[in-house]
Amino acid sequence: MTGTSFFSRRWFASVSAKIIIWGILCVSLCFILAPLLFMLTAAFMPAGDIVKMPYRWIPRGFFLSNFVKAVAGNDGSFIFFRNLFNSLVVAVTVSVTTVLLSSLTGYSLSKFHYRGRDAIFMLIMATMMIPFEAIMIPLYIVVTKIGIQNSYTGLILPFLVNAFGIFMMRQYLITFPDELIDAARVDGMSEFAIYRRIILPNSGPVIATLAILSFRTQWDNLLWPLLIAQTEKMKTLPLYIVKFSTEKYTDEGAMMAVALLASIPMFILFFALNQYFIKGAALFSARKG
């Protein structure tokens, strides 16, 4: 009886722990999804329904005029599409260059042995401690002096590579099998060929993770474009959203429609690379330790 009672208590404790964990996860999920669900439903509602309490989570109908107002803007210029294109150009370019330059640097810092390698890595890591706001004004002065403000070059150049991307690729590649690289060298492959044909194809998960994070950072970037983009045609989507939400005649339904449209590319990118992103996050966490 004592043994049976012991196992019963263990079973009860195990089930109770699982119930508590699942309860916490469900509550956390509700807090995460509630703003997204609000944005989705409010985008199809007239402004009057959005501000009513209690809030109707199911729209009475599809109020599609919100989306027309969202892309037309309060002045009817349809500058939304140009700003969307600008954001795509900047985010895609920065993602590609970050992946390429970070992987090349990470390959060098992890698989080559030369004097000062660790010092260079520590110096790169030290730059992560400096907030962007601390170098923003000097960087803006430099961009202004060389005359690339209000251009794609000015929006992209300061973010071609970042220290976190180098750190991420280095930590991933540091445990990459040396035998594969040595065998390729014996076969006469050049270092760039090894990088292109061995390193990149076998780094898919971490590359996808870095690409998503880089794309999201630039997609949401507001401060730097606010300084650099001086004309409406060069502004990015975050600037359009800020301008749209602060203008006098903007209604809440159109504001939610703008937010929903701006979120769609990120959702598409995440779900397209979902399996690689999850694998990359898991591998990076394991290899970082």
What does this entry look like structurally?
The chain is mainly alpha-helical. It folds into two domains: 2-68, no CATH class; 70-288, MetI-like (MetI-like fold), CATH 1.10.3720. It has 15 helices and no strands. Helix 4 (80-111) crosses helix 8, helix 8 (163-173) packs antiparallel against helix 11 and helix 13 (237-246) runs antiparallel to helix 14.
Summarize the structure in short.
With 289 residues, the protein is mainly alpha-helical.
Q: What percent of residues adopt helix (DSSP H or I)?
A: over 70%
Terminal CA distance reads 45 Å
Envelope shape: globular
* Count of strand segments: 0
Strand content: under 5%
Radius of gyration: 25 Å
CATH architecture of the largest domain: Orthogonal Bundle
What is the ordering of alpha helices and beta strands?
HHHHHHHHHHHHHHH
> For the report, how would you describe the main beta sheet?
none
Q: Segments where pLDDT lies below 50 for 5+ residues? A: none
| Quaternary assembly | single chain
Q: Mind telling me the CATH class of the largest domain?
A: Mainly Alpha
Domain count: the total is: 2
Structural class: mainly alpha
